[in-house]
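BUG: 3D viewer hangs when loading the predicted structure for this chain

Environment: internal workstation, default settings.
Expected: structure renders.
Actual: progress bar stalls at 90%.

Input used:
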Amino acid sequence: KKLHVELNTSDTTSLVQIYGVGRVFAIRIIKYREQLGGYCDKRQLLEVFGIKPEYYAKIENQVWVDTTKIKKIDLNEVSFKALLKHPYMDFDQVKKLIKYREKHRIFSLEQLEKDGIFDKEFLDKLRPYLMVSGN
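Structure tokens produced before the viewer hung:
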């Protein structure tokens, strides 16, 4: 029996009921979801360690994503350490952002692009996970 499971709220018990998902992949899917702050697209499962395109093709019609469940990162409040845990950010990017934030209050993501902190492509990838307080 095939199910239709929401990725941002499911637990391992729900995930292993998906045809083709075992306990190991269920744990990896949840762990990566926690690192991201939630999935914004089910294709992000391809970023989970060990999930290859042919495996994804078997499960993609059994999962969906509720983007209202994504945990946003407030760029004006987040710590260096917390931001570094996000899988899309590396040490140099976090350092650059924190250094910029020490001198400038961040009012928008577009400000980061305009000031050359991040390029549009990178910001678009991170956009579902970011927010700016105090606007």
